[in-house]
Amino acid sequence: MDFVAARQRLAGTRRWVIKIGSALITDNGRGVNRQAILQWARQMAALRARGIEVLLVSSGAVAAGMDRLGWPKRPESIHQLQAAAAVGQSRLVQVYEQAFGQFDCCTAQILLDHDDLSNRTRYLNARSTVRTLLSLGVVPVINENDTVVTDEIRFGDNDTLAALVANLVEAEVLLILTDAEGLFTEDPRDNPAAELIREGAAGDAALMGMAGDSRSGLGRGGMTTKVRAAQLAARSGACTVIAGGAVEDVIERVSSGERLGTLLLPEADPMAARKRWLAGQLQVRGKLVLDEGAQRALSDSGRSLLAVGVSAVEGHFRRGELVSCCNGAGVEIARGLVNYDSSEAARIVGESSERFVELLGYRGDDELIHRDNLILL
Ligand SMILES: Nc1ncnc2c1ncn2[C@@H]1O[C@H](COP(=O)(O)OP(=O)(O)O)[C@@H](O)[C@H]1O
Ligand SMILES: N[C@@H](CCC(=O)OP(=O)(O)O)C(=O)O
Q: What does the angle CA 47 – CA 137 – CA 249 come to, to the nearest 5 degrees?
């Protein structure tokens, strides 16, 4: 793998999930670290200004709640943990909204549980809401819905949740900020001579052997869940960077390709991995019938599907759902995520994108399906 090129490619990516762990958020349990949050918000706002969509997965509800309630030690009882999370979460979102507000960014709280990502309808709902927020320029601030989850359905650690969110929105990058400067050959708390792994393959089994558990009493999974998160994120083609959240301007520096932290890459070409993942994840909701020119544009030239090359629309689907692309004889040649609802698609098929405003009342995307969201069969 060409790691130098992979680092540089980070600068050209368009959608990031950034996860910040409990120890960082609470300055090692000393209360919500407003100063640090302001710095991260500034950097995330700068990413947004460069056209990069940012989703934040923030831990820290339990730790912030413990601090607010004056509890020195993490409670054992699930009900006390849930109570602490309820107290801490409201404080967290208030701090985020204020911090992002200083950089003209709006935030939205999203609390997810296991069902939201495993149940198909709720998965699509979550996906549409998050995508809508992103299109509005809002930064979603996501956490596990700690007050309602039970042990059986708990993600447990936000590394896993962040990776599943990266899958949900097909992010290109998962940046995990923690209190270590990346993955070391062993826990630097045990061995100060341990060396930083700068780059690797997310699926490399040796990495798990290096990763240890959390020690802080605030975080949950240590490096084990971070390496596993990189593996999960790789399924939809995302690369993962594990880096030190306390490093100055870490988000901006990683996003400009600087060699900070640990970069873990998907084995397959990111685009191929993402397409394979897409094909296996979603149900086909409808069908588009392509004329011969469009069939050639897709199959021979790997181009996007334009409305002008479509002669018919079948089924009922919404923007972002998976549709099948067939030739006149009904043979499926491709699948992809469609940019328009079925009723809108029916109005624009056979037409060039110049007429979209007239036909739909707004311009929208030029492509019916962008080539990045198309899988040839
Ligand atoms: N190989 C390793 N390299 C770096 N840190 C490690 C390693 N193994 C275990 N750790 C521990 O993982 C911790 C970070 O994980 P965790 O406490 O869960 O943080 P977070 O709250 O950010 O998720 C570090 O403080 C470190 O002690
Ligand atoms: N949902 C919990 C997350 C706990 C957790 O996973 O913490 P971490 O290992 O620091 O990401 C909270 O907000 O406290």
A: 20
* Ligand 1 contact, 183 CB (< 6 A): yes
ipTM > 0.95 for the complex: yes
Catalogue all structural domains in the chain, each as residue range(s) with its CATH number.
Answer: 3-270 (3.40.1160.10), 282-376 (2.30.130.10)
CB atoms within 10 A of CB 141: 22
Q: Is 269 annotated as a binding residue?
A: no
Residue nearest to atom 14 of ligand 1 (CA): 222
Classify each residue of 29-50 as buried b or exposed e, where b means 16 or more C-beta atoms within 10 Å of its C-beta.
beebbeebbbbbbbbbbbbbee
Query: For residue range 292-351, what is the model confidence (pLDDT) as tens digits?
Result: 999 999 999 889 999 999 999 999 998 878 899 999 999 999 999 898 999 999 999 999
Using alpha carbons, list the distances in angstroms from residue 189 to 200, 201, 365: 22, 24, 50
pLDDT digits (tens, 9 = 90+) for 352-370: 999 999 999 987 889 999 8
- pTM of the predicted model as reported, rounded to 2 decimal places: 0.81
Distance CA 264, CA 241 (A): 6
Is the Cβ atom of 62 under 6 angstroms away from ligand 2?
yes
Q: How close is the Cα of 223 to the center of ligand 1, in Å?
A: 5
- 26 CA → ligand 1 middle, Å: 15
Would the annotation count 178 as a binding residue?
A: yes
Determine if ligand 1 sits within 6 Å of the CB of residue 219. Answer: yes
